[in-house]
Backbone:
């Protein structure tokens, strides 16, 4: 298997052994069918054990897999007639975010997503999918355009975070993210966000104030990377594995915390094993949620979106000491 | 220029919290030492000057209740949601113990104080963050209290003023903390769409998720001199771009220069300037 990860090595090794035995039976005149069957049963069980109980840190590795499908991969499978729009109209075109108009089963939509590169060269051009303010401002421009033409908006989230750089700060990284949160909250068209890879902090959330929020099964969504959390909490970036668990960043965690609407199941071993199949799973979810959302008028949409975010948070009340009896 | 009036902290890259040794150098309580110019002055005089150094104009951190005292008409402040307290949504080890420690240390329930009050007769809703509590970080309680304060301003149809002081997200509340950025921003959008006036006053420090949400969403974005304001931490940026950053990087003055602020205002002038803005908005009103 190409690009296998540490946690799935037992599966890979067992499969290799079965293949060896099969080859052996071909060449030498021995009957190993019973052994092969036994091993194949074991492989099935092992696959079930491993792929149905993926540990948080292993999910992080899948989310970061170099061949994990990107926004443009999904765009080509999910939509037709995609027309990419460039630029924020103020400063430049940030290729860490792509966006444009397209059709989803003949229905016009606007689609926007973070875009990582497939190789080093493309990653440099796309700044590893870490946007500058102009990326967020381009996204917002396209959202307002979608609102004008009454098109639903689909956002694909896949970033380690907004780029921490000098120019980004000078041009108002904070303001650009904040503005998106603010304006997305008021959009009068349906907004659906799907975390397809890493959902890193404010840089991810700036495409995430949506009516429906989904996560691919092996994606992550967090306030800080596991490495960053480990460095801050335990002054030790090598504790990232522990942080990935403590910080609760996986799709099942976010579902349990009530932050996302649902999990989109991944192809066994991760989305990179079969993009087309993965896109079909996303397609089904999009169809359903779009038809639900399109039945709401704009006031209902905005009110429900407000309520959705208002309920996130956990707190309690104490009786305050008001005086001496 | 404002920049000339207030001499900047010299080569001070990170938050200036007086060290234990600084504190021991001087008689506890009676005298205070400025962490910027190192001069010693009577604490009483410093307090009377709204904690602005008498020698170099360095703005010492201000507790939330001191801020109320410095701005709000006597007797007009009514606190909101004072009984709301933090729980542990992620079951993060040791989190509530840390919160309890800060409660005792800072004498606060959480990192933001909210309430209604009057500034020179103008009704406002205020939210004042306090960096002494968990570095002013935003968790569920901070997000919810600010959201409720905005909703209160909307209900009363009065301006909303927020004083930010925060290191960003509350790490121990993970993604719940992140979502408070969306919640508070959505509340401001709702308030704004009704014509509500939003004034943000950024104080030292205003960074991370707080900078990237309500702090930057004022109709008027103001800041105190020398305040550190930015999205990413200076050290992270230096590691990423591998070059030295200008000395004034991410200061209020730097943001003003780069078009990110309406004004940098001395704490001594703040009440006048806020009144100025309020006066222009309140008479006609644009409430929908
Ligand atoms: Zn001084």
Residues:
């Amino acid at each position: 298997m190409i690009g296998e990860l540490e946690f799935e090595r037992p599966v890979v090794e067992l499969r290799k052994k079965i293949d060896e035995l099969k080859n052996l039976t071909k060449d030498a005149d021995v009957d190993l069918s019973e052994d092969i069957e036994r091993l194949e049963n074991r492989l099935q069980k092992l696959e079930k054990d491993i792929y149905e109980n993926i540990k948080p840190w292993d999910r992080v590795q899948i989310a970061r897999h170099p061949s994990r499908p990107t926004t443009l991969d999904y765009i080509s499978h999910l939509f037709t007639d995609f027309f990419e729009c460039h630029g924020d109209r103020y400063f430049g075109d940030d290729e860490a975010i792509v966006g444009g108009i397209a059709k989803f089963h003949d229905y016009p939509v606007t689609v926007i997503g973070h875009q990582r590169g497939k190789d080093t060269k493309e990653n440099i051009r796309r700044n590893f999918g870490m946007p500058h303010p102009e990326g967020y401002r381009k996204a917002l421009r396209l959202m307002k355009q979608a609102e004008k033409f009454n098109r639903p908006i689909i956002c694909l989230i896949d970033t380690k975070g907004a780029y921490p750089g000098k120019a980004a700060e000078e041009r108002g990284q904070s303001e650009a993210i904040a503005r998106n949160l603010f304006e997305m909250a008021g959009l009068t068209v349906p907004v659906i966000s799907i975390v397809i890879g890493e959902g890193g902090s404010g840089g991810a959330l700036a495409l995430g104030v949506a009516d429906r929020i989904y996560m691919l099964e092996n994606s992550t969504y967090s306030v800080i990377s596991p490495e960053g959390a480990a460095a801050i909490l335990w002054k030790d970036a090598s504790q990232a594995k522990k942080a990935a668990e403590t910080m609760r960043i996986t799709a099942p965690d976010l579902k349990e915390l009530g932050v996302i609407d649902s999990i989109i199941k991944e192809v066994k071993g991760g989305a990179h094993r079969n993009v087309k199949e993965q896109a079909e799973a996303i397609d089904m979810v999009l169809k359903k949620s779009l038809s639900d959302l399109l039945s709401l008028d704009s006031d209902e949409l905005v009110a429900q979106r407000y309520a959705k975010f208002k309920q996130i948070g956990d707190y309690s009340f104490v009786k305050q000491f008001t005086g001496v009896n | 220029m404002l920049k000339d009036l207030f001499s900047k902290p010299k080569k001070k890259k990170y938050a200036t919290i007086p060290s234990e040794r600084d504190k021991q150098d001087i008689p506890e309580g009676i005298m205070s030492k400025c962490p910027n110019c190192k001069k010693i002055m009577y604490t009483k005089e410093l307090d009377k000057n709204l904690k602005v150094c008498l020698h170099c104009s360095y703005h010492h951190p201000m507790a939330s209740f001191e801020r109320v005292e410095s701005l709000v008409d006597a007797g007009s402040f009514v606190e909101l949601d004072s009984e709301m307290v933090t729980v542990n949504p992620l079951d993060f080890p040791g989190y509530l113990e840390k919160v309890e420690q800060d409660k005792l240390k800072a004498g606060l329930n959480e990192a933001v104080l909210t309430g209604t009050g009057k500034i020179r007769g103008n009704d406002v809703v205020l939210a004042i963050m306090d960096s002494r509590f968990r570095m002013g970080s935003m968790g569920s309680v901070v997000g919810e209290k600010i959201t409720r304060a905005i909703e209160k301003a909307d209900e009363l149809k009065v301006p909303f003023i927020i004083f930010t002081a925060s290191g960003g997200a509350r790490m121990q509340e993970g993604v719940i903390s992140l979502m408070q950025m969306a919640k508070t921003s959505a509340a401001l959008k709702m308030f704004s769409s009704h014509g509500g006036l939003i004034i943000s006053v950024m104080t030292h420090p205003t960074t991370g998720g707080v900078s990237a949400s309500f702090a930057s969403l004022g109709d008027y974005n103001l800041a105190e001199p020398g305040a550190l304001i930015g999205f990413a931490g200076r050290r992270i940026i230096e590691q990423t771009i591998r070059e030295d950053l200008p000395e004034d990087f991410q200061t209020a003055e730097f943001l003003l220069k780069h078009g990110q602020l309406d004004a940098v205002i001395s704490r001594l002038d703040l009440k006048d300037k806020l009144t100025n803005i309020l006066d222009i908005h309140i008479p006609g009103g644009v409430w929908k």
User: Anything to note?
Assistant: Chain B is about 35% helix and 20% strand. The first strand of chain B starts at residue 31 and ends at 33.
